[in-house]
Design goal:
single chain, alpha+beta, 4-stranded antiparallel beta sheet, 4 helices, 6 strands, 16% strand, globular
């Protein structure tokens, strides 16, 4: 692990706890895939990257999860994936929880 990878994780405490185990094999695949990314589907919770279904919700705890297998890439690879997705204008970034709660309450109010 390079020093910039270590620093990028240390300064983000929310990345310290994650939902699943990290897979070195999956991490390598994701890093390679991000060199020439081909995102063919983009939904609110998932995307298809180079033919693999990847969970992109629950940032950062389950973000980058290889769907149905429950494996995570390294934290740094997850950050790289997030940056790649943020380049897509349609990427549904859901960081403003208060706004989401407000919209949910407004839509259910008679």
């Amino acid at each position: 692990m390079e020093i910039n990878e270590i620093i990028s994780i240390v300064i983000r405490p929310h990345f310290w706890n994650r939902n699943y185990k990290i897979s070195a094999q999956y991490d390598k695949w994701l890093r390679d895939a991000l060199r020439k990314p081909e995102i063919t589907e983009l939904k609110r919770h998932t995307c298809v990257l180079n033919g693999k279904d990847i969970w992109i919700a629950n940032y950062p705890y389950a973000f980058g999860n290889l769907r149905w297998i429950n494996l995570l890439p390294s934290r740094y690879a997850a950050l790289m994936l997030r940056k790649e997705l943020e380049r897509i204008p349609e990427y549904p970034i859901c960081e403003d929880l208060e706004q989401q709660v407000h919209e949910a309450l407004e839509s259910t109010t008679p």
